[in-house]
Amino acid sequence: MKSIVALNVNGDRQQVAVPEHWTLLETLRYGLGLTGSKQGCDKGDCGACTVLLDGEAVLSCITPVWEAEGRDVTTVEGLAEPGRLNELQAAFAETGGAQCGFCTPGILMSAWGLLLRSPSPSRDEIKEALGGNLCRCTGYTKIYEAVELAATVGPTARRRVPPTLPLSPCSGRRGRGEDEA
Amino acid sequence: MLRLHSYRYHRPAALADALALLAEHGPAAMVMAGGTDLMPNMKHRLFTPDHVVALKGVAELRGIEEREGELRLGAAETLAAVSRSALVRAWLPALARAAGLVAGPQLRNMGTIGGNICLDTRCTYYNQTEFWRSALGFCLKKDGTVCHVTKVGRKCVAAHSADTPPVLMTLGAVLDLASPRGTRTVPVADFFVADGVRNTVRAADEVVTSVRAPLPGPGSRAGFEKLRQRGAIDFPLLNVAVALELEGDVVASLRVVVSALGARPRFIGGLEKLAGERPDAALLEAVARRALDQAHPLENITVDTEWRRAMVPVLVRRALAQALAGPPGGPPPTG
Asked: What is the pLDDT of residues B57-87, one digit of tens each?
């Protein structure tokens, strides 16, 4: 039997019919088709499923979907403006902070959560914030460098601007300002 | 992919509602705080409750405040909130440190102080999928009759793996519990029992509502050290918490708890004989020696048991040095 859960995902209000025992990750991936958040260990160890819940990094694979009801969920799909990477994603591309890419969405979300509360973090703060995300490809140096590079862009540029480009085909979200009052 | 079993998830907003749900569903219900331990355990089919009563929305379980000579922490405050709280950092720095060393950042954003205190014990042969456990014929703690650690033992030796209780024990903290049958207060030192299957005196329908620790005096010092393989995520291989009272230039009293070796955290005995000594290297050595003599880790974790034991005196010395070097607890700076 399914129940309807109301979520606010990447700024969009969504109502999804889910089996009551589903996690937030299962709802995002299999209910909403937002497959950016990865199902890695699926038991709260690896950090690949990290999303922001009201701005705080949490593990969606061990979050009952009902804990997210009525709250703001931000997934990796919510970072890029349509057709344009945000400064954190662009910094990862610039420094080579991703290799196979499986851990990258979770690392981006942990780092984004850090930048939201600490716009100019020290290297130690970055290491601490990414301590719950496992990467088995790169080592972490280029990842730390990417977060530092994104931080130099500064909080002014981090403010969202209305999109000027059309909806990206790979984006699961509507362009902001299309039909919203 | 680890699927959960089918269950009802209840989110009461008041303690009375939570207790009513626990009374209504009895043994079919379990309480969940942050869920960082219970959710993976449910995915491993270690628990399959029909009803889960979530505590994070219960208003009475929130808040960190100083009152009547105590610091009171609502049990549903997150470990991140405890580790960052100005009150906790100022009054009980060792507790803030322990809370900040639990797991990784996401788990501290989710997990709570009450949940950490009630954490299930852990063992190589227990924290595995149902398939893995069935292949081995299950174990004493869950679904089986044999302990794969001791081979012959009839007692479960899964390890107490929470980081904050050792500190709370040395600080003399107490827990407030509520159930459909009423309320009671239990010292953290009396909360744990040496049974790995169920290592606390909490009944299944009991909720830890708050943790209260006495505010330390000007001579009080405390420290905490954790041994783990990586700098984040991992459960402890060994925990050491110390608290001491200085009077003039001598140590008037001293408490040391060693944890993560057996099913419950343990006070190191015989330390009263060291009262009146100066806090110098000889004292540190004497405490470290007693701790080593009393620590007997078992192969309940897949990490060299001899190394874990050898690290006991090392961590005791570090925790004592940390306590002596740190500031006394006091009110947070104002302005």
From this structure: 999 999 999 999 999 999 999 999 999 999 9
- Amino acid at the residue B297: P
CATH of the domain at A119: 1.10.150.120
Alpha carbons within 13 A on the beta-carbon side of A175? 15
Residues B59, B144: Cα–Cα separation, whole Å = 39
B39/A134 CB distance under 8 A: no
Does A59 share its domain with A128? Answer: no
Q: What is the pLDDT of residues A33-81, one digit of tens each?
A: 999 999 999 999 999 999 999 999 999 999 999 999 999 999 999 999 8
What local confidence, expressed as pLDDT, does residue B227 receive?
97
Query: Where along chain B do its domains lie?
Result: 69-118+159-325
Helix axes B281-294, B305-325, angle to 10 degrees: 150
**CATH number reported for the structural domain that contains residue A44 in this entry:** 3.10.20.30
Consecutive H or E run containing B23: helix B15-25
* Domain shared by A127 and A169, yes or no: yes
Domain count, chain A: 2
Percent helix, strand and coil across chain A, each rounded to 5?
35, 15, 45
Q: Measured between alpha carbons, how far is A51 from A38 in angstroms, rounded to an integer?
A: 10
Cross-chain residue pair B35–A134, CB shorter than 8 Å: no
Shortest Cα distance, chain B CAs vs residue A105, angstroms: 14
Residue indicated by tokens 């088995």: A136
Q: Structural domain of residue A111, as residue ranges?
A: 80-176
Residue A5 to chain B, least CA–CA distance (Å): 12
Residues of B with CB under 8 A from a CB of A: 1-2, 4-9, 11, 35-36, 39-40, 43-44, 52, 54, 56, 80, 103-107, 109-110, 231-233
Q: Is A181 part of any domain? A: no
**In Å, how far are A65, A73, A157, B199, B310 from A16, measured between CA atoms?**
10, 14, 33, 40, 54
**pTM: predicted TM-score of the whole model, two decimal places:** 0.93
**Gap between the Cα atoms of B95 and A11, Å rounded:** 37
CATH superfamily of the B69-118+159-325 domain? CO dehydrogenase flavoprotein, C-terminal domain (3.30.390.50)
Check B35 against A66: CB less than 8 A apart: no
